[in-house]
Amino acid sequence: MDKFFKISERGSNVRTEIIAGLTTFFAMAYIVVTNPNQIVSFNHLAPDADPAFQQIWNAVYVASILAAIIGTLLMALYAKMPFAQACGMGLNSFFFVSFILPEIISGGDVIKGYHAGLVIILVSGIVFLLFSVTGLRVKVAKALPDCLKKAIPAGIGLFIAFLGFQNVGIIQTNQYTLVQFVDIHGALKAGAFFADVEGAKAFMPAILAFLGLLAIAILEKHNVKGGVLISIAGISVLYYLLSGTTPTFDMSQIGQTFKDFGSIGITGVFQADAWKRAFTGSELGGIFSAIMLIVTFCLVDMFDTIGTLYGTASQANMLDKNGDPINVNQCMTSDSVATVAGAVCGTSTCTTFVESAAGVGAGGRTGLTSLVVAICFAVCLFLSPVASLVPTCATAPALIYVGVLMMKGFAKVDMSDLRSAVPAFLALIMMPLTYSISNGIGIGAIAYVLITLFTGKYKKNDIGITIIAALFVIKFVFVTM
C-alpha cells in the first residue's frame, strides 16, 4: 500500500490519510442530498406535486453517489491524488434551469427534459474526455499566466470560506445589502434559540461554527493530528446536545430509490427521443442552444477542475517545477470519465470537488485519501441517513479554515505590476461574488489579455490565454449562469 500510493514518499502515513479522507467526506457529504434537491428544485417535492419529481430525485440520488464513487476511485487508483469528485454545485442548478424548468413552464414532461439534459452532459463529458486524453486540456491549464495561477488558490480559499459562512448561516441574505451577518438580535427578539426564524437559521449554529473554527486553529497550533476531524466530531455532539434532537434512520425508501434509478435514471441517455429533444426540442431552444450548453458545461467543468487542482495541489505543496499540479493529466482524465459515467447513470456534471482542500488541510497527500472518500460514499448508497448525521455547523469550520490557509498564495502575486495585479484581483474576488470558480478564472483571463494587449506587452505565448478569454466572452454573451 505504501509503495502503490507513495505514502512515505509524500511525507504522510496511513493514519493521516484515513483521517484526511474522512475529513473530505464529511466536508462534502452534503452533496448526497443537495444534488438531487437542486436538480428538481426542492420546492417541487411537496406531497401534492407531480410524482415525476420524486422519481427524478430518487434516480439522481443514486446516480450522484455512483458518479462520485467512480470519479473518486479514479482519483485514488489512477491519478493517485487526494482529490474527491462529485456533482458540481452550480452546475446542478444550471441543469434544472436549462432542462427541467423549460418543461415546467411549457407544461411538458419533466422526465423527458431530464433525459435530454443527460444527453447534453454526456456529450460535454465526451468532448472533455477527448481534450484530456489528447493532452489539449493540460495545455489549456498551462496556458494560464503566472499571476492567475497564484490568484486561483486564494480565490478558491475565499470561495469555500464563503460557502462555509453561508452553509451555517453566518452570512445571510439581505434585501438591501444582499448579504449580512447572522441576525442574533432578530433571533432573540423572535424568541428563538435554535429553531429557524423566518427562513433563516438562528444564531446557535453560527456560534457553534465559530467555536469549531477556533477549535481547529487551536488544535492545529498545538500540532494535534486530525484537528479538523476532532472539531467536526465535537461540534456534532454539541449540536445534538443543545438542540435536544437525536439522529434517526429511515430505511423505508431505499427500495423505491433504486427502482426509480433503474427505470428512469440509468436508461435516460439510451433513448432516441432524448437525443432528438436535446438537439431539436423547442423547449431547449434547438441545435444552437444545445451546442452552447455543451460548450458551457464543458468550460465550467474544465475550469472548475483546473482551479481546484491548482488550488489544492498548491496547498499540499504538490506542484512541479513549472507550478503545475503533479499527475495533472491523470486527474483531468479521471474528472472527464466521471462526467461521462455520471451522465450514463443519470446525473449532472461530475467535477473535482473544492472541498477536497479540507482533506488536504488535514494532511492528505495520496490517493489513499480519495479511496477512503469513495468507501464512505459507497456506504451512503445504502445508508443515506449516515451523511446527514453530521450537521452543517460541524463541517462549515473545516471549509473556512482551509480558506484561511489558501489565502497565503495571493501574497506571491506581483502587485507592483498592474498587468498582474488587476487580473489576479479580479480572479480572486469574482469567484465568491459570482459563486463560480470558472467565472473568476474567465474574468481574470479577459482582463489579462486586454491589459497585455493595450500596454504593448502581448507576446506569442499569450495566444493560449487569449483563446481561453475569447471562449469565456462567448459564454458570458450567450449563456446566463
From TrEMBL:
One of its GO terms (cellular component) is plasma membrane. GO terms for molecular function: purine nucleobase transmembrane transporter activity. The chain crosses the membrane at residues 12-33, 56-79, 86-105, 111-131, 151-171, 202-219, 226-242, 284-303, 371-404, 424-451, 463-480. Its main location: membrane. It holds the Pfam family Xan_ur_permease. Belongs to the nucleobase:cation symporter-2 (NCS2) (TC 2.A.40) family. Azg-like subfamily. This is NCS2 family permease. It comes from Hominenteromicrobium mulieris.
